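Could you join me in thinking about how sequence relates to backbone shape in a protein? Would you write everything just below, so we can both look at the same thing?
***
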Amino acid sequence: MALILIWTDGPERAELQIVSPAQESEIWTFDRLDQIGGHHTTVMGSPRVVDSPVGKAIEFDGVASALLVDVHPLAGAETFTWEAIFRPDGGEPAQRWFHLQETGSDNRMLFEIRVVGDQWYFDSFVHSGDADKALINRERLHPLRRWYHVAAVYDGSEFRNYVDGVQEGSARIQLRPQAGGRSSIGVRMNLVNYFTGAIRLARFTRRALAADVFLKLPDVHQMKPGG
């Protein structure tokens, strides 16, 4: 499945549209609080739906706002691509903003950021059995309050992560598929390290995608910051 952004008549406005379907992908659109991707949510604190240049999104205040979903969208996946479109706005230095957790074990996958002044860098973490790896490149700093695409890819032997389609880290690792579980958005599963910013969309694909078929955005870095 691929998504592209189609410009509308309004200034600094775009809409994500599906242009080719694929049964192996699941999309979660963050445009309502009561459900995400057709799954019921438990709402914590005061996340809110906001308009943005990339469509409706859910904004988190970095204090107590989060969504919990009783689904692990990559359960059983031997290979995967996990993507998200989000806007980090600052806040605490360490933020675990998207967490997939296997029930009854410590096996998990996380999207995290580290905030450094008015910039941030990406941290992708995976733990499965005896294997775990955090992909962190502290030299790849990005401005806050802008929209980004991030991705983590596992092809069966290598784990990679990307920001705006540019690879930032990789590691050789053997990961076993995770069993069913839960997801937390806006916070780590144990309710620490809250996220300050907004999330528009996530896509979970049960195979390793090349960067050229990731979700696509226009040059959102030229859009109004914070919009």
Q: What stands out?
A: Residues 2-222 form a domain with the Jelly Rolls fold (CATH 2.60.120.200). The chain has one domain: 2-222. DSSP finds no helices and 19 strands in the chain. The longest strand covers residues 119-128.
